[in-house]
Amino acid sequence: MPVPLAPYPTPPAPYAPAPAPPTAAANGAQSQLVCSGCRNLLLYPVGATSVCCAVCNAVTAVPPPGTSTEMAQLVCGGCHTLLMYIRGATSVQCSCCHTVNLALEGKELENLLLFNHSTNQVAHVNCGSCRMLLMYQYGARSVKCAVCSFVTPVGVSTSSTQQKFSA
Predict the structure, then answer these.
(1) Is the residue at 115 inside a domain?
(2) What's the domain count of the chain?
(3) Does residue 21 form part of some domain?
(4) Residues 111, 119: contact at Cβ < 8 Å?
(5) What angle do CA 30, 66, 84 make, to 5 degrees?
(6) How many percent of the chain have pLDDT more than 90?
(7) In this structure, how many other beta carbons lie within 10 angstroms of the beta carbon of residue 138?
(8) Which residue segment(s) compose the domain that 42 sits in?
(9) pLDDT level of residue 85 (50, 70, 90 thresholds)
């Protein structure tokens, strides 16, 4: 069946601006921060101004937009606990064993690894308490045993490296 034609052209649709793209909050996006009370990682919806921790009930203020809160992780050198910290920090203290860990990223870490690999300047000494053989960076004044936590002083003389052969 033929379709009747309108005698006049249809008027154009009124101008309507394109809808704005959905915001991060509308998408259900989340961000994260560390609880100011118990140091647990908290997830919260983007746009929130504060977050109440379900574990300790502490209320932590959300930093203003533009503040870098991107998180990074490292393994504690003392107790091997996974630590989270705000990217850009230079050191992170473990809340379990209180070891201060260097937080190196990118070029800093690459340079350190290249330096250690290319120089290979390490020495050995037996722990002053449990006699475990320890390896340390040449030039260090002392080395802490990972087994018994005893701190063994290290001299620059060759007697400390000869010690490994006498035991």
Answers:
(1) no
(2) 3
(3) no
(4) no
(5) 55
(6) 10
(7) 12
(8) 30-61
(9) confident
